[in-house]
Amino acid sequence: MRLLIMGPPGAGKGTQAVSLAERIGGAHISTGDIFRANIQQQTELGKTAQRYSDAGEYVPDEVTNAMVKDRLAQDDAREAFILDGYPRTVGQVDTLDAILDELGNHLDGVIELVVDPEELIQRLLKRAETSGRADDTEDVIRHRQEVYTNETAPLLAVYGSRGLLIQVDGVGDVDEVSHRIDAALPS
Predict the structure, then answer these.
(1) Rounded CA gap, 126 and 149, in Å?
(2) In b/e form, how buried is each residue of 176-187, taking b as 16+ CB within 10 angstroms?
């Protein structure tokens, strides 16, 4: 099974993606993890990504796309994977389609964790308080939610039109949400 997980910041994507990857026997592919691994291993892509990161800029799509393509071509991702954090733009959807086509694969589903925006803000404020992240103010959190809505949410319309979108209630404890995801997956 080849899946993508989406949802706004604080929806629990990372937590659910890790356990879902185990349940489907596939790779958890997180763009954040890919960036860190390439930077740590000082690959050419990692060095390029580091230059942008050090300058406080977004890593360009072509670098991100190349890293994702390389990761999807690895053995543990051939039969099953869950993508977490990619694609983030409609342009990256097209690139992902081309990458998967080249690898002889396709997406089986796109899971959207649905959580009320005010619930997300409270979750993230609580997380900021317990983790000591002073940069996670309510204004910053609200801004991230707006960025998600404006830039990433349009992907949901694309995947919805393809019949791939699986909306799952993301409110509840980790096990409850996991059970909802499992029940909603295509068989």
Answers:
(1) 22
(2) ebbebbeeebee
Catalytic residue among 36, 51, 133, 162: 133
* 162 assigned to active site: no
Select which of 23, 78, 142, 144 is catalytic: 144
Read off the pLDDT of each residue in 88-101 and give the average, rounded to a whole number.
Answer: 93
Fold type of domain 2-184: Rossmann fold (3.40.50)
* For the chain, domain boundaries: 2-184
Which residue among 2, 71, 88, 123 is the active-site one? 88
Q: Are strands 81-84 and 2-6 parallel, antiparallel or unpaired?
A: parallel
Q: How far apart are CA 175 and CA 87, in angstroms?
A: 26
Greatest C-alpha distance within the chain? 45
Q: Give whichever of 129-143, 144-158, 165-179 has the largest mean pLDDT.
A: 165-179
